[in-house]
Amino acid sequence: MGFDLYGLNPKLKSKEPSINWEDKPSSEEKRQYFKDREKFLKENVGHYFRNNVWWWRPLADYVLNLMGGIIPSDEHESWHHNDGHRVEEDVALKIADRLEQELKTSRVRQIQKNYDEVNKKASDHNNKLRIKMKELHQIVVDKTNDENIAPVSYPEPFKSQWDDIYKMLDHRSSYPFSEENVIDFMRFCRASGGFKIC
User: Is the separation of the CB atoms in 56 and 2 below 8 Å?
Assistant: First the structure.
C-alpha cells in the first residue's frame, strides 16, 4: 500500500509522456516510455509524489504536527487514508515554507536520528522474537510433519504461542524518516499548485 499525491495545478517544465497501451506497444516502446516518464517526473517535481505507507505515516505526522493551526485537526485522518483529500495551493505553499525553515535548522536531522535509534532498537527486539518464531515453527513441523504449515494453521497450544509472540513485535522498526524525504516533499508542495492524497 502506498500514498500517491498528485499536484492539482503543477508547474510543468515539460510535457508528460504518453503511451497507448491498447496498441500493445513493443518492449522498446515501453522502455522508452518509462525512461521518458522518469525524466518527466524528475523535471516536474510538483506533478507527483509517492511514499509507501511506511515512509508516508511518519512524514505526514511530522507535517501535521508542524502545521498546527494551518491544517485543521478534522483533516488529519484524511492524511492517513487514500480518500482523495485535497490540500489547496495556499496550504501547500505554507507547508513548503515551513519545511524550508525547518531544513535550515538541525531539527529534521535530529528527528531522523531519533527514528533511526528507535528503528534499530525495534529491529533488534524483533530479531530476537523471529528466532523464537522460527524455533516454534520447527516444533510444529516436527509435530505435524508438515514443512509448509502456516501459523494460521498451527494446532493449539502452538497457535496461541505464535499469536503471543507476534503481539510482542515492535512495528516501529518499519517506519523510517529521512531528511531527503522531507526535502522531496517540500519541493513537491512548492511546485504542486495544491495536491490530493490518493
Answer: yes
